[in-house]
Amino acid sequence: MSDMITADLVDLDLAAGTKEEAARSLAERLVRLGRVTDLDGFLADVAAREAQMPTGLDGGIGIPHCRSAHVTEPTLAFGRSGPGIDFGAPDGPADLIFLIAAPAGADDAHLAILSSLARRLMDPAFTSALRTTTSPAGAAALIRGDEEPQPAPSPSTGTGSTAPQAPGAGSAQSADPAAADAAEAPEPAEAAEPAEPVGSAPGTDSGTSTGTGTGTGTSTSTSTGTGVRQGAGEPEGDSGDGPPAPFRVVAVTSCPTGIAHTYMAAEALEHAGRDAGVDVAVETQGSAGFTRLAPGVIAAADAVILAHDVPVREKERFAGKPTVDVGVKAGINRAPQLIAEARDKAARGEVTAPVPADGGEAPGGSGAPVDRAGEPGDGYGTRLRTWLMSGVSYMVPFVAAGGLLIALGFAIGGYAVDKAPSVAEHFAWGQADSWAALMFQTGALAFGFLIPVLAGYIAYGMADRPGLVPGFVGGAVALTIDAGFLGGLAAGLIAGGVVRAIQRVRVPGPLRGIMPVVVIPLVSSAIVGFLMFLVIGKPIASLQSALTDWLSGLSGANAVVLGVILGLMMCFDLGGPLNKVAYAFAIGGLADPNEGSLKVMAAVMAAGMVPPLAMALATVVRGRLFTKAERENGKAAWVLGASFITEGAIPFAAADPLRVVPSAMVGGAVTGALSMLFECTLRAPHGGVWVIPLIGNPLLYLVAVLAGTLMSAALVILLKGHARRTPAPAPDAGEPGETHEKVTVAA
């Protein structure tokens, strides 16, 4: 394998004013060396990753990175900026910029080498040396580790090898690729750093490892065998004669790409643990896969820290222990505070509810969309949005299934199908009306879960599993007293707040085991039932009734204005929180449908179809304004837009937000207004053009969608056409002679 970074990939005087310009400047070096095949396609992938979460870190570091099909081999490029570049870090601009490029199908060993850089960035001596070096070759050598002392060989008695060396300097250059891969560890960063003496605390390694074992777990020390971090298998236990055992923490770190933040958070937690005298064992769930912490290490732990932006795999292993659950950047920036918080929770006896063995998240599964109540640094508005989106995310499948079944029932059996007798008592196999009644009644039952599921999972987003029971109970009460969608929102927030309050109460040790399964469900359900039945339920029901009457009477200018607002919300963040708020408002009306709520649902779906359809049309009309990758995305956007998947426009918005997003919003507003003006209605909450037969005034509905699409496409072409253009570095492969117009984003 060739060196991941050479002097040609280093720019000690990076001339760039924005993070986009910095990424382009460094990426051009990758193109010149053949490490990247399509500059624009690669930059689009970098921008899409940046859109998920800023890649700036405290200490003046920017780490734009991505996995991309346009990368030929794992590569690092390094730039140093005098004035600094804003990568979204809380403490200001970054002067050290690392562009990490990983192939889409990179093997685990190669991605593990990328993780070693992330760990070394937590070493002040390393970053200081990069700021003072005057030679590109010297900077490349520092990053590779060539100028660092090599650890002593492991006293291996088996087939162990010395610590992995920098690419191009040792075992990674083995003539036998299989042998080289075997010698490279999933997390080689520990071998690249000098070992620190650590006491023989249970659950940790205390020095060198032997052989080629790939023990489970992780360690706060440095392994010098094959580079695999050896977590002690089973805790040794306390002999009773020595000093008291140190406080033990197990942690999991993970980020969307699994390349940088995952390992930096792990390193920060381990360093903070050493400073605090706490044993910290970290399981990094990154792109290189993960080695599970040994069950004994988890059992011996006093607390758990989960620093993640994607669902933790096999999270049920940590149930029943005090848990701090935060985002991965909190693991990097606030590691000492997280360890202190874990100790405080353990002292108070706060534990998570047990999880059935088959009830957790499957490895690699999608898991829960919201597994935490927000980071301590988040404002109340951010946390409230997170909680509400948790409930909406779980409610949407019930809406889709129930709404489509109800709509199909109406389409087949007519609008009198809701008067049909129960199919359990009367069903004729050969009659379409009976099948229509079956669909309608099944869909109605699915719809009956909307409010309890909404409330239950809002409470879950706030208080994890203990919030489910009072949340569902509160939602059922809201349904009983006709408090509707608003009642479900209130019930979920009340249930989550009550459970969080109960969890803060100190309880005697013998009672802690029954708290999650008896005390919390009992007390919280009683409180929520009392509040919903006798205190706030009836006022909310009155407000819900007034909202329903207002929607029923919508007409003329009022309806058009509402359509404009909903269209703008649907297209502002393309599937983000504001989009979800508009969608939740629409489907909330379907729980108690009337003429007005059906118009709202039609306007919301029509506006949500516009952004991807408009971008697809623009790539056809003026393809030269778009990169090759964007033109390929445009082909998929036709289907995504037609299916009401607004997220199909995200790749375009990530690459050029200042032109794409406003264009999409204008088109969405036009479509929403026209849909309301034409009095189109819709009983199905999803489906796009595939549910046109279920739409009231379907031809005018298509006219509204077409008008918004044409408006958005025309605007984005106009804005890109007037933007500052620079020649592309080279024609796209396979398209010789094509004239390119490269739009430079000034954002």
List keywords for this structure.
single chain; 747 residues; alpha/beta; six-stranded mixed sheet; four-stranded parallel sheet; disordered C terminus
Low-confidence runs (pLDDT<50, min 5 residues)? 149-240, 355-377, 726-747
- Count of individual helical segments: 26
The end-to-end distance, rounded to whole angstroms, is 37 Å
How would a crystallographer describe the biggest sheet? 6 strands, mixed
Please count the beta strands (DSSP E, at least 2 residues each).
14
Query: Overall pLDDT, averaged?
Result: 76
> Percent helix among the residues?
40-55%
Radius of gyration: 29 Å
> Pairing-aware structural class of the strands and helices?
alpha/beta
Strand content: 5-15%
Oligomer: single chain
**What shape does the CA trace take?**
flat
Record the SSE blueprint:
Layout: E1 10-11, H1 19-32, H2 39-52, E2 56-57, E3 61-62, E4 65-68, E5 75-85, E6 94-103, H3 108-120, H4 124-132, H5 136-144, H6 177-183, H7 189-192, E7 248-254, H8 261-276, E8 279-284, H9 295-300, E9 303-308, E10 323-326, H10 328-333, H11 335-348, H12 380-413, H13 432-447, H14 450-463, H15 468-480, H16 484-503, H17 509-512, H18 515-535, H19 537-552, H20 556-572, H21 577-590, H22 595-621, H23 628-642, H24 650-655, H25 657-677, E11 681-682, E12 695-696, H26 698-721, E13 725-726, E14 742-743
Parallel strand pairs: 1-5, 3-6, 4-6, 7-8, 7-9, 9-10
Antiparallel strand pairs: 2-3, 5-6, 11-12, 13-14
